[in-house]
Amino acid sequence: MKKSIYILCAVLSVACNNSEEKIASKEQVTQENSAIEILPSWNDSKTKEAIINYVKDVSNKDSKNFIPIADRIATFDNDGNLWAEQPAYFQLFFAIDRVKALASEHPEWQTTQPFQAVLEDDMTELMKQGEHGLIQLVMTTHAGNTVQEFEADVQAWIATAKHPTKNVTYDKLVYQPMLELLQYLRANDFKTYVVSGGGVDFMRAFVSDIYGIPSEQIIGSRIKTQFDYNDGNPVIKRLPALEFIDDKEGKPLNIQKIIGKKPIFASGNSDGDLQMLQWTASNSYKSFMLYLHHTDSVREWAYGRKSHIGRLDKGLDEANEKGWIVIDMEKDWKVIFPYEMNK
After folding, report:
1. Which of 22, 60, 125, 246 is 20 to 30 A away from residue 188, measured at CA?
2. Same domain, 312 and 213
3. Helix, strand and coil percent figures for the chain, each rounded to 5
4. What tens digit of pLDDT does each residue of 257-316 get?
5. Of the candidates 160, 181, 202, which is a domain's last residue?
6. Residue 279, C-beta contacts closer than 8 angstroms, at least 6 positions apart
7. Nearest alpha carbon to residue 75 among 246, 337, 244, 262
């Protein structure tokens, strides 16, 4: 079943009252931060050292590499980079669960593919439906409703649905070291964005609270939408058609369209993120390109060049060639998921 899913997814801050108080407060925070370990879930390695040295360099006004706060843009892929993505993208599991939840309203699905395959848990047959079948599945479960209705569906699902092998809700499968990296960057006046191939409304429904990133800084793939005045109660309807796929070259295109600035820091885990890292590397400012390599088969999953999900092949070659930083999950991270902190 896992192999079938692999192949299937291949298709697819308290203000002070006066300036003196503000200065004192900032000095106090600096002193407090100096006593706190930076990136505590990271092992002391060249990777951690490189990240810290870069941030200190570009945020130091006396450095030749100083970057103004307004230009400190950091972009992060989501699937496989901020949270897990195996044995299938979590949004696909949402789509499958939605089919099952809606099946009683659609008796015809019992004998109609690709829905029949989902209802019978027949991943082999679902795989045979190819790209067309997968798109049909996603469009049926992600459209035909308003943005508010879709958000409610996602929030209800993320609160209860559990991962098939980790047996925890999907929101528990975020990477603790990456949460710390996001916080560290923001503490140094970086503006963090999610730039993912996943559906933008799917992510906005719940990841803002997890990552500390507001919804307007979450960028992803989009389906077409339509405004309806709805007799004085305006709604935005979700239509069963793709508008933009935020993957590969789509990432720098969407970054330019929505953010309007090149990132100085970009992080991803697959070849689908390569163009985003290339775009970042072309910045006139000193930039930082970071790849996450999944090397831990015990605590997570080990995959890379030959994976049908999150393949890291061309990206790894370019990272090695150009001296980009590559996280070795097994060696660089003390823990992977937040719930491991309590063990």
Report:
1. 246
2. yes
3. 50, 15, 35
4. 999 999 999 999 999 999 999 999 999 999 999 999 999 999 999 999 999 899 999 999
5. 160
6. 251, 252, 255, 262, 263, 266
7. 262
Same domain, 77 and 181: yes
On whether the CB atoms of residues 79 and 296 are closer than 8 A, the answer is no
Q: Is residue 332 domain-shared with residue 280, that is, in the same domain? A: yes
Q: Give the span between the Cα atoms of 71 and 135, in whole angstroms.
A: 37
Query: How many Cβ atoms sit within 10 Å of the Cβ of residue 257?
Result: 10
Beta-bridge partner residues of 75: 193, 266
Whether residues 188 and 274 share a domain: the answer is: yes
Taking only the tens place, the pLDDT of each residue in 159-174 is 999 999 999 999 999 9
Domain range for 326 is 38-85+169-342
Of the residues 136, 160, 184, which one is the last residue of a structural domain? 160
Residue 340 CB contacts under 8 Å (≥ 6 apart), including other chains = 176, 299
Do 270 and 128 fall within a single domain? no
**Do 153 and 225 belong together in one domain?**
no
Which residues have CB under 8 Å from 309's CB, separation 6+? 6, 9, 10, 80, 85, 86, 87, 88, 89, 303
Q: 218 and 100 in one domain?
A: no
Residue 195 and residue 77 in contact, taking contact as beta carbons nearer than 8 Å: yes
pTM: 0.88
Residue 312 sits at the vertex; the CA angle it makes with 3 and 166, to the nearest 5 degrees, is: 45
- Give Cα 172 distance to the centre of its chain: 14
Q: Which residue reads 């080990």 in tokens? A: 302
